[in-house]
Design goal:
heterodimer, A: mainly alpha, B: 628 residues, alpha+beta, Sodium/glucose cotransporter, five-stranded antiparallel beta sheet, two-stranded antiparallel ribbon, 65% helix, 9% strand, globular
Chain lengths: 47, 628
């Protein structure tokens, strides 16, 4: 496949593309999720 | 190196530097509080955050350093790209990023050591982590600085020290003035340039070599060519090295899997200058969006560098043609193939020196053949068969056309400042770009490498400044409220430290290993405490302290006494035991990365000590884990 005969190299090649796609899909699905912001609790630090 | 510098190159570089300085100034204008200066005001755009994370992560050593290693050892390095994306981006952003951001915000943490220190209520942890960063990041930065300045000095034909001074002053200017906002804005510009440069490099390489499948198939057909690395398990550029344990023929597998893939792939999780990026965004949404950009960015950076590095072998062996006049021939000279403390291996070669520009001076040097060597015990090393046999055809007008028929490693022939000939893996990608690509890409590639070096260095210096200012000075003296001023002083101290190291340690054995040493130390010293801080409510202060100390000490011992390359570079083991490594006679052990040894020990210490010591106060833990 793709001219790569070594299973180890082919697996690495495909996993690189698959993991980048995973990042794209995750980012797209969660594009608008998690908008809650947090405020600092440490009063001394805020001062 | 790249072709002669043109006026256009200088103009474009000056425009680029103008924009970088402008973005630093923009960061300065938008910096109103210590929070702005230290963590960019916790309101960075996801595009800027993702590119800043990626550009900080990827330095010149990733593109030309590891790209050159791929030119030598092939596509098995893609396992590192997989870990860079899956662990360095996906796991890191999805599982560590959100918790780091929230906990950092709850605790008012502005630096990575401050996050750990406040989570475990330990001044020692913050100061210890700050000192590790302050002492070791400048060494890592010096390695990047030396690479960047040698490239600039060669490209623009200026003195190395002048390049070092100009380069460090420019970076100092926008980091000191602009703070993390200035750093991240310029990172985003530099990351964009790097992305474009690497995309063009990938497309051009595959199209030059006949397409994806054809290029891979032809490179795989070269797997059976004689190789200098056969005895350490090399099976070709499109194959994994020989896997196993207990014989020297498995050394390459352990180098690629333990040091390159796991050492760097896992080590990235606990890099202070990267972890602090999670605290620069205002909500989880920004991290979610950054995952998308970061995953693609890292694939294009390291994936392209490793694929192109490997495929350069096919170009040099089958496609490269050099036309010019042979200026001179060196019949027999020892070319350095390996140079470490008390260990220099040379290969006797015949070199031809070719003038391709017509100015009478040789600008390309090629190995025409190798000479056999008879060892003292009577054995013959058949370098005449292991080395390329260049084809030389007369063109009839005094010029010749030369087909080097060499692999990438043997084409990366340079003359050192000491006048010796040497095969240099870091020259593989630049040589490939010069020989195979049009002149205009040389300029894009120059900007790509400048961007890669500057984006990493700026973040390293910012991390050094915050560690000495916020984590060490303020904690030790108890004087708070001047974070920005002290951080600025810390950044300047860090830069001066790195410049001194870059001046006096250049070409030294230690500096070449600085990146690997820093990654190993961070992983073993910080990772168990960092993951424990984010996920385990019952992890105790003493467990965090002991896991950090044990991780640091075990890594240091392994590097000083057992791992051959680092132990040889440091020279301490040889001074005490008159051996470069205590495991040199044990096959494979001397190439095992410290992360394989120190990280499991550090994790076990964290778990055992947590079970044996008093759990942390409930109200503090609840505050740390609020909404997490």
């Amino acid at each position: 496949m793709l001219g790569i005969e070594s299973k180890g190299v082919l697996l690495a090649y495909m996993l690189c593309i698959a993991s980048a796609l995973l990042c794209v899909v995750y980012g797209a699905i969660n594009w608008n999720k998690g908008q809650e912001t947090t405020e600092p609790d440490d009063v001394a630090w805020a001062k | 190196m790249l072709a002669e510098v043109q006026t256009l190159d200088i103009v474009v570089v000056l425009i680029y530097l103008f924009f970088v300085i402008y973005l630093g100034w923009l960061g300065f204008k938008q910096t109103k509080t210590a929070s702005d200066y230290l963590i960019a005001g916790r309101g960075v755009h996801p595009f800027v955050m993702a590119l800043s994370y990626g550009a900080t992560f990827i330095s010149t050593s990733a593109i030309v350093g590891f790209g050159g290693v791929a030119g030598m050892f092939g596509m098995s390095l893609l396992w590192l790209t997989f870990l860079n994306i899956f662990i360095g981006i996906f796991i890191s952003f999805v599982f560590l990023g959100g918790r780091t951001r929230k906990m950092g915000h709850h605790l008012g943490a502005h630096t990575f050591p401050e996050l750990l220190g406040r989570r475990f209520k330990s001044k020692f942890i913050q100061v210890f982590a700050g000192l590790v960063i302050f002492l070791f990041i400048p060494l890592y930065a010096a390695a990047v600085l030396i690479g960047g300045c040698e490239f600039i000095a060669t490209k623009f034909a200026i003195d190395y020290k002048v390049a070092l001074l100009v380069f460090s002053v420019i970076i100092a200017a926008y980091v000191v003035i602009g703070g993390l906002k200035g750093v991240m804005y310029s990172d985003a510009l530099q990351g964009s340039i790097m992305f474009i440069g690497m995309i063009v490099l990938l497309v051009w390489t595959y199209s030059t070599l006949g397409g994806v499948t054809a290029a891979h198939t032809e490179l795989a057909e070269m797997n059976n060519l004689p190789s200098l690395f056969g005895k350490m398990g090399f099976n070709g550029w499109m194959a994994m090295p020989e896997a196993g344990f207990g014989e020297s023929k498995y050394d390459l597998w352990w180098i690629i899997i333990s040091t390159i893939t796991l050492g760097v792939g896992i080590g990235v999780l606990a890099q202070p200058q990267l972890a602090v990026r999670f605290m620069t965004v205002k909500s989880k949404r920004e991290l979610n969006r950054a995952v998308l950009i970061g995953g693609v960015f890292i694939l294009v950076m390291t994936g392209v560098a490793f694929v192109v590095g490997s495929l350069s072998n096919l170009y040099f062996y089958k496609h490269e043609k050099v036309v010019g006049t042979i200026v001179s021939t060196t019949e027999k000279v020892g070319v350095i193939a390996k140079k470490e403390r008390d260990l220099v291996k040379k290969i006797p070669c015949r070199l031809i020196h070719i003038d391709t520009t017509g100015n009478g001076e040789a600008d390309i040097n090629i190995v025409a053949a190798g000479h056999d060597v008879v060892t003292p015990d009577g054995a013959t090393i058949p370098f005449s068969k292991l080395m390329p046999a260049a084809e030389i055809n007369e063109l009839g007008d005094g010029r010749v056309e030369v087909y080097p028929r060499a692999n990438a490693y043997l084409r990366a022939l340079i003359k050192t400042s000491g006048g010796e000939w040497m095969f240099n893996t870091a020259s593989i990608i630049p040589t490939f770009v010069t020989q195979s690509m049009p002149g205009w890409f040389g300029l894009i590639f120059l900007l790509t490498l400048l961007s890669a070096a500057m984006s990493t260095l700026s973040s390293q210096f910012h991390a050094v400044g915050t560690s000495i200012g916020r984590d060490v000075y303020e904690q030790v003296t108890g004087r708070h409220g001047k974070s920005v001023t002290i951080t600025r002083v810390g950044i300047i101290i860090g830069i001066i430290f790195a410049v001194i190291v870059s001046t006096y340690a250049r070409g030294g054995f230690f500096i070449a290993r600085a990146t690997a040493i820093f990654f190993g130390l961070c992983a073993s010293a910080f990772l168990p405490a960092y993951v424990g801080a984010l996920f385990f409510k019952k992890m105790t202060k003493k467990a965090a302290i002991w896991s950090m100390i044990v991780g640091f000490v075990v890594t240091a011992i392994w590097l000083v006494f057992f791992k051959d390359k680092e132990a040889r570079a440091l020279g301490i083991c040889h001074a005490i035991f008159e051996k470069h490594s205590l495991l040199l006679d044990k096959p494979n052990w001397s190439v095992v990365d410290p992360i394989i040894i120190a990280l499991p020990i550090s994790i076990i210490v964290a778990i055992v000590v947590s079970m044996m010591t008093k759990p942390p106060a409930k109200d503090h833990v609840e505050k740390c884990f609020k909404d997490i």
